[in-house]
Design brief:
Largest sheet of chain A: 5 strands, parallel
Number of domains of chain B: 2
Helix content of chain A: 40-55%
Structural class of chain B: alpha/beta
CATH topology of the largest domain in chain B: Rossmann fold
Distance between the termini of chain B: 53 Å
Oligomer: heterodimer
Number of strands of chain B: 13
Helix content of chain B: 25-40%
Low-confidence stretches of chain A: 690-697
Strand content of chain B: 25-35%
Number of domains of chain A: 3
CATH architecture of the largest domain in chain B: 3-Layer(aba) Sandwich
Mean pLDDT of chain A: 94
Strand order of the largest sheet of chain A: 1-3-2-4-5
Strand content of chain A: under 5%
Largest interface: A-B, 24 and 17 residues
Number of strands of chain A: 8
CATH superfamily of the largest domain in chain B: HUPs
Radius of gyration of chain A: 31 Å
Strand order of the largest sheet of chain B: 11-10-9-12-8-1-6-7-13
Number of helices of chain A: 27
Order of helices and strands of chain B: EEEEEHEHEHEHEEEEHEHHH
Radius of gyration of chain B: 23 Å
Mean pLDDT of chain B: 92
CATH class of the largest domain in chain B: Alpha Beta
Structural class of chain A: mainly alpha
Bound molecules: iron/sulfur cluster
């Protein structure tokens, strides 16, 4: 047998096979109509620029759409999804090859290509697909993880896929056996099917069954193609599109600006007020539930579920498509009436019977775990903040704890009503330079931005004091703003009071630019995020580092020499706004490593997958039910590592975790210590005992 | 229903103790570096007035203050809470007007601004805490007044007033015009303004009046003509001393302790 002549008879035993083209045409029309129907809805959204920076987009697309990088993070899903995904691609190629070979002059289905790809590889993937369907079914039927959405649709889709693969093998097997295909062994799975049937079926029976199954295979395949865009299978197209148009700037830069002069409504409580990208997000959801599974609020039993927020909005979009299109058409013609006072907006999104309800919206810690978990780059968090903005700015309807904070930020420029500390108490005796009092403020190379959480909260004054001492020891020429410092506005922005955030941001930028500040070290990751990602749009461009980064550099540059090595076991908690929001996981770990004699004992949820302390997004100021406290959940995870020290790098985390550890540690001795405090103890602090010999906690 | 709410801007009572300084020469709290806020009972009065306007299905609420130019901030906040009009009677020369002076000025302004059905005043201010302005103002305007009111409801062509007492509440009715001194309860927590109202508050007109325009002579309300004088103002010195009662046995110690307590009690009485 000459391998280069290997091929097979196409459309064997199938008279009138050309009819498939007759059926294919309407199938494709239905499919395209299905996709267009959705596309039309997204177009009803407001504009958003998501087609710039093509190079980066292509890169993201290759890694995450083609490469499925995020899907791979869950091993079980990675296996069966790869089966379905690659199987789908391979089988589509194979089918196309058949069509080209049979109905065009190009005879490509021959020789080694036929044997290796069209027979062997295709057979392998066909089997992989069936195996994948069984795995998916097993997960749905037996493992039943809570994160999934249990619909009939999902089972129907899996069933169709299984039938397609299975009938494929049947017709292949019968053809091999009946035609005595000399290359049959190259299609091992079909071959086995064929041999097995030959034991119980006559040649005539197999020929008959082949013909019937061939048409069944085609009918189910076409049905699947036409049905797909109307189901979650549409993600095959929408998810890659969504990845391509994702936010490229990181989670820390994902909230939208508001033009207060022009905006008709502040925040969003009307579906047509979303951008087209927001609406595309809704359709791109694969219902995988990973977002909800990692959501800290959901984990401790609260109502918030980012998955359901996306899916409920998706359903709303489909259910109100006519109205949505009508509004979009009016808007395009400039005929859309501005909203009247007191009138409910069209297609309201905040509904008591929906995942997008007032209660759930104000449970979000803005930790971005949902966005990091989403395999298709859906942006849940900005939508939550959009809706919060509406409730806060248009309705003034939000939790009391957050109201007090907002009022305090308005009146006192800090979010800690009732604090008995001033902005400079913590620095007593350190004789730090204050910009306003310096003859030449430019002499200060670095501004140490202390932050409200550092200066005004008892627990954290020792952290900012430690940082200042370390900067002094290293001979850094730095100054503070003292009384002129005011909140960066982060809590206001996450709570949803964008207006207040803007006022504070503009004020701060004016102060900083007035002194010609170039370089800033912040103690708080929230301040860090605001400077790095949010102030540039107000004209504030600074080189900003978090204290962990700056201290790491001082240690690595030899300007600080840690000597006393702490012997206690340390675990490190990644703050959301340093880690996930800004991608800094290493610097604080390096500072810990420099201060400690033992290796960090990592929590199972760390780095990119870190679990929020519960304090972000204004949640620090809200009373949580005693049995649903995010900080205690996280404290437990830290305690469970067996560590003696929970290292932190954020004043919010320090406060929340100290509280949580206090509640959960029992008679263990566990302390919550900032990396700056650890480093100071290890470099040597004249004011304090040596680390490891004290028993804080 | 035409309502006048008198408000006062004071130093932030939430000021950290370390930031609270006394200006000994002027015998007043040093305002440098401290925030100014609207007195909380005045905000309760604003809230009660706004709720009354809603309950009455309409009406006008005017906020007024007698203070320096900077007191405009408190009026803007009142506008953000959606009062209809705001009036600032400018005080640019009298450093420490007392309740009688303030009452006279506000009365003159109230007469000039028109007929009010109800004048509302906070129970007392968070700075000096004298609680007299409302009474003086009622006297000046010749209005019946009631203090410690925490709820006002329309009642036919009159008003129903709920008043807090030591062991519950009393209800009174009054035919306008009248004056009430408002205290706080859980229903008149000042509302958080909506952002659009905050923005609008800066665009709304704000009427400014001078003492001359009100026809109030400086002598009547000025420095040196006040009814009382602050002779000294200081932050109380706190001193803590600790002493261990001595004795050879527990019995002796206890006896000694009891003797000492007796002595202290006797000296206080
Ligand atoms: S940002 Fe965090 S808290 Fe908010 S929905 Fe996402 S995972 Fe949950
Ligand atoms: S939003 Fe993303 S992570 Fe959440 S269910 Fe949908 S696809 Fe999965």
């Amino acid at each position: 047998m000459n391998m280069s002549e290997a091929t097979r008879e196409v459309y064997w035993n199938v008279p009138y096979h050309n009819l498939i083209y007759v059926f294919l045409a309407p199938t494709l029309v239905i499919m395209l109509w299905g996709f267009y129907r959705r596309f039309r809805l997204w177009k009803a959204g407001k504009p958003a620029l998501r087609t710039d920076r093509l190079g980066e987009r292509v890169d993201l697309f290759i890694r995450n759409a083609l490469g499925q990088a995020r899907t791979m993070r869950n091993t079980y899903a990675a296996v069966f999804h790869t089966g379905l995904y690659l199987g789908f691609i391979v089988l589509v190629i194979a089918t196309t090859v058949v069509a080209i070979h049979a109905d065009t002059p190009l005879k490509i289905m021959q020789g080694p290509f036929y044997l290796f790809f069209q027979s062997l590889i295709v057979d392998f993937f066909g089997l992989f697909v069936m195996f994948a369907v069984l795995m998916a079914w097993y997960r749905r039927g037996r493992l039943k993880p809570a994160k999934l959405v249990y619909t009939d649709e999902a089972n129907i889709l899996l069933g169709l896929i299984f039938v397609i693969a299975f009938t494929g093998f049947l017709i292949e097997g019968w053809r091999i056996v009946v035609t005595e295909d000399p290359w049959g062994l190259w299609s091992p799975v079909g071959y086995v099917f064929g041999i097995a049937s030959a034991k119980v079926m006559s040649t005539e029976a197999m020929t008959m069954a082949h013909r019937g199954s061939w048409w069944l295979h085609m009918a189910v395949s076409f049905g699947f193609i036409a049905y797909a865009p109307f189901t979650k299978m549409a993600h095959v197209v929408f998810s890659p599109l969504n990845i391509f148009t994702a936010n490229l700037d990181g989670y820390g830069a994902s909230l939208k600006d508001i033009d207060f002069e022009k905006a008709e409504r502040f925040g969003i409580n009307s579906l047509p007020d979303f951008t087209w990208k927001d609406l595309l997000d809704l359709d791109a959801c694969t219902e995988c539930g990973r977002c909800t599974a990692v959501c800290p609020a959901n984990t401790v039993g609260k109502e918030l579920s980012p998955r359901d927020i996306i899916l409920d909005l998706q359903k709303l979009m489909h259910d109100s498509s006519d109205e949505l299109l009508e509004i979009a058409a009016k808007r395009q013609k400039g005929e859309l009436e501005p909203p009247k006072d007191g009138e409910p907006p069209p297609i309201p999104i905040i509904r008591d019977d929906h995942a997008v309800n007032k209660e759930a919206l104000f449970q979000c810690t803005t930790c971005a775990a949902c966005m990091e978990a989403c395999p298709v780059f859906i942006e849940q968090l900005p939508k939550i903040v959009d809706a919060r903005r509406f409730l806060v700015m248009e309705e003034a309807d939000f939790p009391e704890g957050m109201m007090n904070v907002v009022t305090s930020m308005e009146q006192r420029q800090h979010p800690f009503p009732g604090t008995q500390f001033t902005r400079t108490d913590w620095a007593d005796g350190l004789e730090l330079d204050i910009l306003a009092d310096m003859a030449d403020p430019k002499e200060a190379e670095v501004l140490f931005w202390v932050g409200c959480g550092g200066a005004l909260v008892e627990r954290n004054r020792s952290t900012v004091r430690a940082t200042a001492k370390l900067l002094k020891k290293a001979g850094v020429k730095f100054a503070i703003l003292g009384r002129e410092e005011s909140c960066t506005g982060d809590p206001a922005r996450r709570i949803g009071n964008e207006f207040l955030f803007e006022m504070l941001a503009k004020g701060n930028v004016e102060t900083l630019n007035g002194y010609g500040v170039k370089q800033i070290v912040t103690s708080c990751p929230h301040c860090f995020n605001t400077f790095a990602n949010e102030y540039p749009q107000f004209g504030g461009h600074y080189e900003v580092s978090h204290h962990s980064q700056y201290l790491r550099d001082l240690v690595e540059g030899g300007r600080l020499q840690p000597v006393h090595e702490d012997h206690r076991h340390v675990t490190y908690h990644d703050p959301c706004y340093l880690g996930r929001h800004n991608g800094e996981y290493e610097a604080p770990r390096k500072v810990v490593a420099a201060s400690s004699r033992t290796d960090i004992v990592e929590m199972p949820k760390s780095g990119r997958d870190s679990f929020c302390c519960g304090g972000g997004g204004g949640m620090m100021y809200v009373d949580e039910p005693p049995d649903k406290r995010v900080n205690q959940e996280r404290a437990q995870q830290a305690i469970d590592t067996g560590a003696d020290v929970v290292a932190v790098a954020c004043p919010f985390c320090a406060t929340m975790l100290e509280d949580g550890v206090g509640a959960r540690k029992g008679d263990r001795n566990v302390s919550v210590i900032d990396v700056a405090e650890m480093l100071l103890a290890s470099v040597g602090d004249e004011e304090a005992p040596v680390a490891g010999e004290s028993s804080a906690g | 229903m035409n309502i006048l709410v008198c408000i006062k801007q004071i130093l932030d009572p939430d000021l950290p103790a370390r930031d609270f300084k006394i200006d000994a020469a002027n015998k007043e709290a040093d305002p440098k570096g401290a925030n100014k806020v609207t007195n909380i009972f005045c905000e309760n009065a604003l809230e009660t007035a706004l709720q009354l306007r809603e309950k009455a299905g309409g009406g006008k609420v005017t906020a007024i203050t007698y203070g320096p130019e900077g007191a405009e901030d408190s009026l803007r906040k009142a506008l953000a809470m959606t009062v209809d009009e705001a009036v600032l009677v400018i005080n640019d020369k009298h450093s420490k007007p007392d309740a009688i002076a303030v009452g006279k000025v506000l009365a003159a302004a109230a007469r000039k601004l028109g007929d009010f059905d109800l004048v509302m005043v906070g129970r007392e201010s968070g700075d000096w805490g004298l609680g007299q302005t409302g009474g003086v103002l009622a006297e000046e305007l010749g209005l019946p007044s009631l203090a410690f009111v925490d709820e006002v409801d329309p009642d036919g062509d009159g008003l129903k007033l709920q008043r807090q007492t030591d062991n519950g509440s009393e209800v009174a009715t009054v035919k306008p015009p009248a004056l009430v001194l408002i205290t706080n309860n859980e229903n008149n927590v000042p509302r958080i303004p909506k952002t659009r109202d905050v923005m609008m508050s800066y665009r709304k007109p704000l009427q400014k009046l001078t003492l001359e325009e009100l026809g109030v002579a400086d002598e009547a309300v000025g420095d040196g003509h006040t009814a009382f004088e602050v002779t000294n103002l200081y932050v109380p010195e706190k001193s803590v001393s600790c002493e261990f009662v001595q004795g050879d046995s527990l019995d002796e110690k206890v006896t000694e302790l009891a003797r000492r307590i007796h002595g202290i009690v006797a000296s206080v009485n």
